[in-house]
Amino acid sequence: MAGKIIITIDGWSACGKSTLAKQLALKLGYLYVDSGAMYRSITLYFLRNHVDWTDTNEVKDALKNIILEFIVNPKTKQSEIFLNGENVEYLIRDLIVAEKVSDIAAIREVREFAVAQQQKIGAQKGIVMDGRDIGTTVFPGAEVKIFMVAGSAIRVERRFKELFEKNPNISLSEIKTNLEMRDYIDSHREISPLRKAKDAIELDNTNLSEKEQFDFALKLVNAKLV
Ligand code: DC
Prior knowledge:
This protein is an alpha/beta fold. It has 9 helices and 8 strands. The termini are close together.
């Protein structure tokens, strides 16, 4: 059996990347890393500390004060993100963070900070990481690269279901606007924009069940593990 590999899952917002990544990690006994959670946590820090992110020096200083860690929750067996020792896994899903995260993720210093940590975490392989630039910039040599897409309506509906549980005041139109805005900024930014890597396999899950999507991905992985 081959050694451990790196699996990257990139794609548009709310396409189900993290659902698939978690399932694969669990099946393979790999580490799951949610790179978006890193950008969201940095955004939360900037918002809380009133960092003016248009000022490069302020950004550089703020980044010096940020420690991000992924720690496995023994109950759920899922890794959760900690910002300077505080579990922010749930706070960072808030729309307030989602509204600013793409602007902050477009900043060069922020990307350098996050990418360096992502590469360090993945150095041992045996990892599933999802995001926007994982197969293109973070791990261009990854053995399995998946690029996820799904129809707009289904993505809005899925994200609505997820967020409505925590915030019943949220509306479909707010979510649609946020997803469209993030997709636009994420795919048009100068540094590492969202792109399908040349060697990535596209997975359109508009009409797939979670099981079908998982089986498709597992086949790709198993083909690399034999
Ligand atoms: O995967 P997510 O929706 O939690 O990601 C939140 C934002 O973080 C996304 O809109 C853009 C940014 N991001 C990024 O720029 N690069 C990544 N690898 C992951 C996320």
